[in-house]
Amino acid sequence: MNDLTGKPVYLDHAATTPMLPAAIEAMTRHLSEVGNPSSLHASGRRARRVVEEARETIAGAMSCRPGDVVFTSGGTEADNLALKGAFWSRHQADPRRRRILSTAVEHHAVLDPLMWLAEEVDAEVELLPVDRYGRLEVEALRTSIERDPGSVALVSVMWANNEVGTLQPVDEVVALASRHGIPVHTDAVQAVGNVPVDFAASGVDMLTLTGHKVGGPFGVGALVVRRELEVTAMLHGGGQERDIRSGTLDAPAIAGFAAAVEAAVKGQPEHAERIAVLRDRLVADVRRVVPDAVANGHPTLRLPGNAHLRFPGCAGDSLLMLLDARDIECSTGSACSAGIAQPSHVLIAMGMDEEDALSSLRFSLGHTSTDADVDALAAAIGPCVDRARASRQPVAR
Amino acid sequence: MAGPLKVVAAMSGGVDSAVAAARAVEAGHDVTGIHLALSRNPASYRSGARGCCTLEDAHDARRAADVIGIPFYVWDLSERFHEDVVVDFMDEYAAGRTPNPCLRCNEKIKFAAVLDRAIGLGFDAVATGHYARLRVAADGEVELHRAEDDGKDQSYVLGVLTQDQLRHSLFPLGDTPKSQVRQEAERRGLRVADKPDSHDICFVSDGDNAGWLREKLGERAPNHGGDIVDDASGEVLGHHDGTYAFTIGQRKGLRLGRPAADGKPRFVLDIEPVSGTVKVGPRAALRVGRLEASHARWCGAAPGRLMGTVQLRAHGSEHRAVVTADGDHVDVELIDPAEGIAPGQSAVVYDGTRVVGSATISATHPAGSR
Fold this sequence. Notes:
The structure holds two protein chains of two kinds. Chain A has helices at 21-31, 42-62, 75-93, 108-120, 138-147, 170-178, 199-202, 251-266, 268-289, 316-325, 345-349, 354-357, 371-390, and strands spanning 9-10, 69-72, 99-103, 124-128, 152-156, 184-187, 206-210, 221-225, 294-295, 306-310, 328-329, 360-364.
């Protein structure tokens, strides 16, 4: 518990972060207004205006054209649309294009659509290896592309890893792929607002972002997709979003989303600087109490708010529970639908064994994080680690 | 146990464990709800119906914890469960015995693996929804007794618990009839109130033990087909595809072409896993007067020699008996003979309502023999 606020110490901003005041204001302003953005009358036009102004705001913040922004229900839908939609159209245009190149550390919103494409529509998915920090082995990508560039339908590499925080060499990926005219998708859900993300400068063709990770509402996100790239629709209906995404547009949520993106991108440099300092102190303070704690992920090329630590001899889910009992909230990485902590595929891909993977926890900071949060963790982590370690010793009975 | 304790409530997603958790909270304990995931891939064991480990059960347990207002976590016991319960179940059947996996689960998982982890994490006790009672005797020993509700009494499956395990256990439902527990669940707003009771083995889908075993055991040597022979004459009466499909006392599914000479039904009397021979005979030959058992587990001190009762099945009746314990070996003279008792079943020994302990039946002897 935070002594000042009486609220839990929330160290799970990578899961979701509180809405920014500007986003709450923008969203609630429109909640009481009637109007379907597709209607032709005055109320419809007013709602449409809200959506289009939001689109322009996001385009400004992301350095893309407003027409590149396709609103979705969030990151998962945007990833599905990018991968399935682009594979479909590229494969239709040239049946030789069967390969999709990605990394072993992608989020499940990328991995699972890829597995589906492999199983159901005969795509050939190659998950390229990463180094021990979780960063793509660019040479492996080069070799894979150059083996047969004409057979590559697309490349998808996340901007920043959601678990260990490592940034990916997206510029190098684009350099390799664009030489052969291969489109590149990047899941930038964790990156936007935390590191500079410039769609135009990056050279990627498709980019996923979502509202609730940048201080916007749940249930809204976008795929930024270059208009020149043909993407087959996955959700069919009214064709509201450039005919590649259907569904009535949620004007209030879109307004809140745009306000959050604008504020997060504008404030990114100061935000990143502040929480990187806080994050470094968190790691140092924890390691002062638990000297054998190991920081996972890249030491410098990483998200500013992410601290991913391995506590040797602890079961991560035990440690999470013990911290939770002291109102300190963090994450084990991934859990199955029943709620069982699973050995992270990211850590396994980084070369960790199952036991080490299961002894790691993610602490992620965000715009509401304070020194008091780090102090509370530093005070609690020692006894919790001792307890978690003791619980691993079998009791004679 | 007295005073407010830090308690782990094992919540299956059913009505009993939900009410047990709620009562533990009401008794002033600091309660954390735990659902045990017994399979890494939770949909793989049984779907839809009540069991230990479906996604639906995890969901129901979580919702019950929400309503009660306690923290809730899922603990992954899948590896231990597979090794200690599922593999044990298969091995026992492969060896021609008839095990009760619920006792094994209580012995190895719920009151061992879970309790170990809970105590390590700073908890004092595990609470479950079992219908059984705990009493503290004058000498301070914790005694396990049958539940108030005879029809729901589950002390049989707890007969494997040791004194140390009992000292760290809470059974908040022991004094209450089941019907009252359902009403209480409804009153407390626990949606699980209308769920049916679970009876079958949780990791076997559709209650089809033979089908499950056929699939899992596959071509394991002791389960090849064999002869069905008349126990008295030695005459071969038929053939079967695997001994796992039979239990002692079974009458149905023998598919013998010819009726017995006396026209009366025939029952499985014995299973020889190595040769694959299944022996059948008349009902009278099923009567058992004496049992030998091993793998003894006592709730307190070993009894030596005791005039008491034994229960031989989860919902079986009581048999008066003279029980003699000698180390790990237990000899049971049944005053009231039993019928169709198979090696592998557990004999739970009672002194009145008190559970003395349990042992796994290793051999049976006909009534009247000494």
